[in-house]
Design a protein that fits this description.
Layout lengths: L7 H8 L5 H52 L43 E2 L10 E6 L4 H4 L6 E12 L2 E11 L4
Antiparallel strand pairs: 1-2, 2-3, 3-4
Length: about 180
């Protein structure tokens, strides 16, 4: 008597018990596509979140500059080179008069963190561009971002008979 043969239906089931190579390759390809898309979305959201954080920091710095400068816009007859105001026209005094010179300036070495104007102790509304450091976090002012806060004072305009400067605030940085 020869070997026992299984019934034909059992042989067919045994032949179909595993996956074919094509099925395995297609399943792996689909898994790779799904994993790649999940990582892509995660990376994009992380990158976008970082950019939004930097935009928020820049907006806060610009608000600080405009908040400080709005105190300086007094309508006085202050000299744009020295910051000296005549007592008759100017009722507001600067944070530190320094003998009447540069009474409204941006430098504050005792502040935490220290804030400084690249032009030194000059009147904050001196015509030209002023670069302010210390308002942004140190990591943002350093490489690779090299963020800078600057404001530009243009020629004074007369509003209701009082001289008022035109000020433009800008925060710029490089995205790596």
């Amino acid at each position: 008597m020869g070997p026992t043969r299984r019934p034909p239906s059992t042989e067919r089931r045994a032949a179909r018990a595993g996956y074919t190579l094509v099925e395995v390759v297609v399943a792996m390809l689909l898994a790779c596509v799904m994993i790649t898309s999940v990582f892509s979305v995660t990376l994009t959201s992380k990158t976008t979140g970082g950019k939004n954080d930097r935009r928020l920091l820049a907006g806060q710095a610009a608000s600080q500059v405009t908040g400080r400068l709005k105190n300086f816009v007094t309508g006085c007859d202050c000299s744009v080179t020295t910051g000296i105001c005549s007592a008759a026209s100017c009722t507001l005094q600067g944070p530190t008069p320094r003998g009447g010179v540069a009474s409204w300036y941006f430098n504050c070495p005792t502040c935490l963190p220290p804030v400084s104007d690249n032009r030194g102790d000059v009147y904050a509304l001196t015509i030209g561009t002023h670069v302010i450091s210390g308002l942004l976090p140190a990591f943002f002012e350093a490489a690779p971002y090299n963020a800078r806060v600057n404001y530009t004072v243009d020629i004074f305009q007369t509003v209701n008979g009082r001289p008022v400067p035109a000020v433009t605030v800008n925060v710029a940085w490089a995205e790596p």
